[in-house]
Write a structure and sequence with these properties.
Blueprint lengths: L1 H58 L2 H26 L4 H16 L35
Keywords: Coiled coil, Endosome, Membrane, Protein transport, Transport
Pfam families: Snf7 (PF03357)
Family: Belongs to the SNF7 family.
């Protein structure tokens, strides 16, 4: 009877080992399947991205991009020429007349008002000082 019980115990231990191996194999298979599903999603994403890039390449060829860049450079050059014309609208005669007028103004004796000799009154600080807001800076257009 003891031998029969030992054989039965041995058989159940072997069955448990086989079951544990099968469970670990199943867990490994589930992990492999999940990883494969993720790989499939990545591959699909790459495929869709590649299709989008191909469509964009069909819409925007290299010649088209070069044409747009050339047009932009032409427009910038045209704007620069306009700026030069506007800035250089004074002739040499105009510049000479301006310099003469400036010299005449700087050489004139100007009468300045008399400075008061009384001391300045002391200023009483206000209860709520007014904060100065910073003025926005102007930026050159380019």
């Amino acid at each position: 009877k003891a031998l029969l019980l030992l054989k039965k115990k041995r058989y159940q231990e072997q069955l448990l080992d086989k079951t544990e191996n099968q469970i670990s194999n199943l867990e490994r298979m589930v992990q492999d399947i999940e990883f494969t599903q993720i790989e499939m999603k990545v591959i699909e994403g790459l495929k869709i991205g590649n299709e989008c890039l191909n469509k964009m390449h069909q819409v925007m060829s290299i010649e088209e991009v070069e044409r747009i860049i050339g047009e932009t450079q032409d427009a910038v050059e045209y704007q620069r020429q306009i700026d030069e014309l506007l800035a250089g609208s004074l002739t040499e005669e105009d510049e000479d007349a301006i310099l003469e007028e400036l010299n005449a103004i700087t050489q004139e004796q100007m009468e300045l008002p008399e400075v008061p000799s009384e001391p300045l009154p002391e200023k009483i600080p206000e209860a709520s000082p007014i904060k100065n807001k910073p003025k926005p800076e102007l930026v050159e257009a380019s």
